[in-house]
Design goal:
Helices cover about 35% and strands about 15% of the residues. The chain has about 300 residues and is α/β, with parallel strands linked by helices. The strands form 2 sheets. A 7-stranded parallel β-sheet has the order 8-7-6-9-10-11-12, sandwiched between helices. The chain has a 5-stranded parallel β-sheet with strand order 2-1-3-4-5. The two termini are about 15 Å apart.
């Protein structure tokens, strides 16, 4: 019987049927990487979350030939080393997509209605102060970069608010899949969007949203990032937020998490959240189900 080591806290229910029929499941949430190598290196499958970092040193010593991460991203794993060591990496495709898309829209609304500021002045008994920015979403243009499971859901949500949608994705096949959406080149999207949302992986996209792309932005654009912090070059972002070229931003992800660039704390035109886009009880269950199904399909043929 094959052995599964679950090294991080996840929803266990989807694995109960696997344990009864096919696998020995060992649940050790919070175990150190050193303990995994020392005591459980003979397991067949290692299940983790994105909070755990698996670097090349760990991968090169790892005898476990399948690593499943209960997350969409894989940037916490040295995938290149895993490939060299013939370790298979499994990850979620859409288990947290609804949650991430909902937060993206929530941040768009929070920026547009200036909810944080309104809450602040109301608490200060300044109820009759309406002298601050607010706007409607209807007829505004939302530029969506990355139109996979999350980006396409964001597109549908934005469309329900009467927004115009511009889409850019390097996967040309998506254009025929989503025929009701307008796919455009990146520069056109950047220069015509009132809101820009990012839904691309960190892999191969380090500093994707850099100074050169920010030069093309429409004045007073708002930026929302719920993908990965590494895809934005933070220094020019901060500069453009200070100058007002980017009127506001909402960031759920950052470089070097959990150590956020403290310059963001000084800005009043930025909403900061602590990487919660895909983290809800519902998405946790769906991602566990997704990984359990992957494992069942892979190992019980």
């Amino acid at each position: 019987m094959k052995k599964i080591l679950i090294a991080d806290k996840i929803v266990l229910k989807p694995f109960e049927s696997l344990q009864k029929k096919f696998f020995t499941v060992i649940y050790k949430p919070g175990i150190s990487n050193e303990d995994i190598l020392r005591n459980y290196n003979d397991c067949d499958i290692l299940i983790i979350r994105s909070v755990r970092k698996l670097n090349s040193d760990f991968i090169n010593k790892c005898g476990i030939k399948t690593i499943a991460t209960v997350s969409r991203g894989t940037d916490h794993i040295d995938v290149s080393s895993a490939q060299k060591n013939k370790i298979k990496i499994l990850h979620c495709r859409n288990g947290n997509a609804d949650s991430a898309a909902e937060l993206t829209l929530g941040l768009i609304l929070t920026l547009s209605k200036n909810i944080i500021h309104s809450d602040s002045i109301t608490r200060k008994n300044n109820f009759l102060n309406y002298n601050f920015f607010r706007c409607e979403l209807k007829n505004k243009t939302s530029g969506i970069i990355g139109f996979g499971e999350i980006g396409s859901r964001v597109g549908k949500l934005c469309k329900s608010f009467g927004m115009n949608i511009l889409v850019h994705d390097i996967n040309k096949k998506l254009k025929s899949k989503f025929k009701s959406f307008k796919f455009v080149n990146l520069n056109l999207l950047l220069s015509h969007s009132d809101y820009i949302t990012l839904h691309i992986p960190a892999e191969n996209n380090l500093n994707f949203f850099d100074e050169s792309k920010m030069r093309h932005l429409k004045k007073n654009v708002m930026l929302i990032n719920t993908s990965r912090g590494e895809v934005i070059d933070e220094s020019p972002l901060i500069k453009n937020l200070k100058s007002g070229k980017i009127s506001a931003a909402a960031l759920d992800v950052f470089k070097n998490e959990p150590h956020i660039n403290k310059e963001f704390f000084k800005l009043k035109n930025v909403i900061l959240t602590n990487h919660i886009a895909g983290k809800t009880p519902e998405s946790a269950l769906k991602m566990s189900i997704e990984i359990a199904n992957f494992i069942k399909k892979q190992f019980t043929k």
